[in-house]
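Help! Submission page says 'invalid entity' but I think these are all valid:
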Amino acid sequence: MGLASSAIVQTVLTGAALLGAISGMLGAFAVLRRQSLLGDALSHAALPGVCLGFLIAGGRNLGAVMLGAFATGALAALCMMLIIRRTQLKTDAALGIVLSVFFAVGVVLVTVIQGQGGAGSLGLMTFLFGQAAAIQPADLWIMGGVGLVALGLVLALWKEFKLVSFDPDFARAQGFRVTLLEAVLTVMVALAIVVGLQLVGVVLMVALLIAPAAAARQWTRSLGAMVGLSALIGAVAGAVGALISATTRGLATGPVVVLVATAVVIVSLLLAPGRGLVWQAMAARRAQARISDGRVLAALQSVARDHDDRGHRVARGVLATALGAMPTPARLASLERRGLIRATRQPPDPSPHWELTEAGHAEARALSGAPAEPSR
Amino acid sequence: MIAEIFASIPAMIVLTGVLTGSSAAILGTFLVLRGNAMLTDAISHSIVFGIITVWLLTGQSSGPVQVLGAALTGVLTVVLTEALARSRLVKMDAAIGLVFPALFAAGVILISIHARNVHIDVDTVLLGEIGFVWLTTWQLAGVGVPVAVVTLGVVLVINLGFVLLFWKELKLASFDPGLAAALGFLPGALHYAVLTLTSVTAVAAFDAVGAILFIAFVIVPPATAYLLTRRLWLMLVLAVALSVAACGLGYVLALRWNVSIGGMMASMTGVWFALALFFAPGRGVVAQAMQRRVMRLDHDCRALVAHLFTHAGTPAMAEENTLRALVSHLRWSEPRARAVVLRAHDRGLITRDGGLLVLQPKGRAEAEAIFGR
């Protein structure tokens, strides 16, 4: 507990949680609009901006760095628009070009700063892989301010963002300025990246944007809940990752945060009710069981109908022939337990027989989709 | 003579760059055409995990075991990504963005933990160390050849051989995967073969240019070539030539400014792309703007001959068929009116007779065609 109460750790944890929450909130829209890789391209493209911020401010100044990152991120988005509109190159080629060329320019600028030496180059590496421990108390104000702006925009334009995320064509038909709204959303993705750089760095920023949203999506179908949950997961991943990396020597924050977020994604993909893989598998097995029970009942009913005898006792071999194979004893026992069939004997024959109960007849009819019989 | 070349540090650095660029561009051509360029992004990030894992398991930091073992991670990334997208729990773009950062992060953490023993550090992952490729050499026929040059040379031969051998199939699968599948050419298998080779190339190039700059060599030169030609073989040759030029010029500039060599080489591919984007003959942004200007002028020329034709021989002709009337009656701006008159004059549609604009036979014919006479 002594650790958590120290002022430095509190600053780092608050900052990390704040950054994670902002990225998670804005990432939800990027994921819904299938712009995850835009986030990747813009975050790599922020590197030259980070370096320019360093060069101009002459050291690690969060405001200058964020401004620079935002400027080159916006320039990258414009370049991508130019490539997509004016050439026949596919979107993914445009993403790859912008990502790699901006990053290459950034690498060149990194060596320029390293060539100058001094404290500047030390602070720079924290923006490549993130170093939550480098968060200063004064930085919290900038992060909080950006977070408030982002939250304000999301709340003010909630209806518009919702519409543009799910049905941009309908939004356009309704007279919303879709291009402008999409531009605002892209700017907000850039904003999320700029804010998150401190925590996870340019290379892994895409994960902080996508992972919380992808995890949140599995648990809910409502946009409000998804955005909220995504922000929460982002905050938790940020705080936990920052704590682990701050207490382990030489471990950059970014990779730890990303692995924590990825763990949340894996759990969500497996276990989320309704969508998760485990849930799906269980549901599939339940459905199979239901269908198989239904087939047993239908076969028994069909044999009974052929003999025009509702209480007809069906021999083992007859049932196996009708179904193509003998149902498992467990299945028959379960049907009997549910009162749908009854095991009997046909006296001269020593082998077991089965007959449908009235409840079994009703269930078989219900499964076949026929209207219920008038009760006798 | 040969030994001298291989002993020359600048020659080896540029040669490493050229081999990386050529191997990458050969495969990148088909990735860009097929629309899979961003899978390179995923592969080149996640091989970091493969490289460190193979090193931890076998203790080998180069050689075929390392290259193939680490390349498996790249292929694994693609398989995982496609499986995740197929489960329909997340979309394809999010699947890419979930899988490779996780593997990359795991790789970086493993490097940090074993930082004292491992030959790569976190900087190398991003930037590569093309300036130091000459440090580790193998003796081949009595000549010390850098390991990176040998590895990348072998990779280049394999890539080139693969592309030449399956040229027809690759061409068909790139432009019409449906037809390729119908004809039994297994475009899916080819797709994985290209991605496997991309993965192998990424691992071989890792020490030289790092994980991320490699993406530039795969995507940017082929995309640049695509802006310049529509012939597949020419696109491939151009892409290789562009990356060779980028490596040479990048090295010179990096020395002059004392900056990252790999970064400068990759930046030069970006410069070529920007030049092609703006100045490509016929398709560049500038050519498009000029074409639009000519089309606008020609459209105005049609309006001009129609105007002149309507008023020719009428009492209002002296007033209407003048430059001033174009400005005051058609409400064209003065420069626009002058440009249109010049263009129409150049095309032999009109002549000037004092202040009067007079239709030539060619202009009269165009006007009659407009009015359907």
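Support: the input was valid. A stray whitespace character was the problem, and the output above is from the cleaned input. The two ends of chain B are 79 Å apart (CA to CA).
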